[in-house]
Amino acid sequence: MSLYIDTHLQKVLFILFENGKILTKIEKDSSFNHNAIIMSTLDQMLKGNNIKLESIQDIIVINGPGSFTGIRLGVTIAKVLAYTLNIPIRVMSSILIQAISNVEKGNHWFVEEEKNGYFVGEFNELDELLNDYIYIKRSDYEIFKSDRQVIENVSLDFLKIYEYSRTLPSVNPHLVKPLYVKLIEVQK
Amino acid sequence: MKDVFILAIETSCDETSMAIVKNGNEVVAMTVLSQMDTHATFGGVVPEIASRMHTENITIVLEETLAKSQMNVSDVDAIAVTYAPGLLGSLLVGIECAKVLSMVYEKPLIAVNHTMGHIFANQIGNEMRYPLLSLIVSGGHTDLVLMYSPYDIEILGSSIDDSIGEVFDKVARVLGLPYPGGPNVDRLALEGAETYHLPKPMLQNDYNFSFSGLKSAVINLVHNEEQRGNEIRKSDVAYCFQNAAIDELKRKVELAFQKTGVKEFILAGGVSANQYLRKVMSDLSNEYQVNFHVPVLKYCTDNAAMIGAAAYPLYLKKIFSNYELNAESACDISKYVQFMKEFIQ
After folding, report:
1. What's the gap in Å between the CA of B54 and the closest CA on chain A?
2. Topology of domain B129-294, CATH
3. Residue A166 contacts by C-beta under 8 Å, 6 or more apart in sequence?
4. Do B46 and A186 touch (CB under 8 A)?
5. Which of B65, B245, B323, B342 is most buried, taking the most CB atoms under 10 A from its CB?
6. What radius of gyration do chain A's Cα atoms show?
């Protein structure tokens, strides 16, 4: 069984995959107050389906870009779970999962919107990221979009995302980090 | 009685720390990963960077603590974590880790107030005998409390404006001393002399403290000397400031000795590392034949062992938390005091 954890924006999403299928999925709007609901939501999903933590064989975590606190909390619980249960952990970005889900393949930009702007990344037809992710301020976004193939509002295909995750190497839990992309004031 | 082992987590500011504490007074293992060098380059703690580093280091600190203790999480009786007060983003990392450990190992979760942790640092390798007087001096707090037991506490007085730690840091900044400022003021004051006149903070004869007037006086003194083109004797400013601030603490403690007749006194909080403060309080206690105790230096600054020590009385009364536990950035001990009052009734 694989546990998928995504808390990178205002929602808390857990999915349990078994034999390549979605066994159960739970999604809650946390209004960015992840901490108060994240573990009780996981607990609810496990107990509701009568699943023991020990039956989870690996973890997939979305490590950003997104809300700083959101990705930090998701990554923290994912790495502590992987470390204590001694199971593999795989990391995927919130933009990569869009590229994977998008039906029409080609050279495209995918976006993740946040409060003051957009995280963007360019992918080729093999869903490979071409350069590092960048952050575009809201005021610059229209110009950025005008001469690029930007695909917005991709609806996520979790089965495809799961299949793709099987091709990724697992990471040492100590080394799993959030993907922040945007610089904070003191780093500028 | 069976021994009680508590795994404690502290991430309220810029130290990622975990410890395993036996029976609330013996440290089996402790790890403190300080981020001080990183924050020093910015001249102070940057909250976002602090929480980032907690997330990066959390499992490493866990692994190291378990290795040192030669125990597994399954061997402990409870997981304790600092939930307040502190930097929100930083507290959340520790809380999330504690919740996961509590879930995986099916252990009770104990929410600990950081300030109570500073008090119970005095229990490590020592027996706290009640009733006792405690002076809590830190970056966030200046409180004088009377404890009849871990569950029965009376707050005698608190700072009505800045905390003593804040004022030390501010004075350090005005004097151009590097971060962290407090210890540098302490060091510099050793070479100083009483050459400047600073007003003594003088509140009425109650237990409350006020330091903002003294802070302003130091700022004005330095600015005035600069405007006159006089060279500032930094060590003398540090000396005069430290004397005035610590005299004020001494005055209130002495008042409490006289009025309450208490015979046990403990010092707690980050500023209790201040050498001059330790000496003044030790001398005063001797004069009044009061037993004085202060934690060894490594338990004065932020650490998880003190959180494990403070969690022990909560464990004994089965005061447990749950997965909804949230962080609180500002939370003074009056909330803890009130909770305990209602609990023991």
Report:
1. 9
2. Nucleotidyltransferase; domain 5 (3.30.420)
3. none
4. yes
5. B245
6. 17
Q: How confident is the model at residue B180 (pLDDT cuts 50, 70, 90)?
A: confident
ipTM for the complex shown = 0.96
Q: Do B99 and A184 touch (CB under 8 A)?
A: no
Q: Which positions ≥6 away from B264 have C-beta within 8 Å?
A: B128, B129, B130, B131, B132, B133, B290, B291, B293
pLDDT in tens, B132-145: 999 999 988 899 99
Q: In angstroms, how far is CA B299 from the centroid of its own chain? A: 9
> Which residues from B are below 8 Å from A72, CB to CB?
51-52, 55, 89, 92-93
> Under CATH, what is the fold of the domain B5-121+299-344?
Nucleotidyltransferase; domain 5 (3.30.420)
Residue B138 CA to residue B182 CA, distance in Å, equals 10
Residue pointed to by tokens 């007060």: B85
| CATH number of this structure's domain A2-187, picked from the four choices 3.40.50.1970, 2.60.40.10, 3.50.50.60, 3.30.420.40 | 3.30.420.40
pTM of the model: 0.95
- Cβ pair B51, B16 in contact under 8 A: no
From residue B14, give the alpha-carbon distance in Å to each of A53, B36, B49, B171, B329.
32, 7, 9, 21, 14
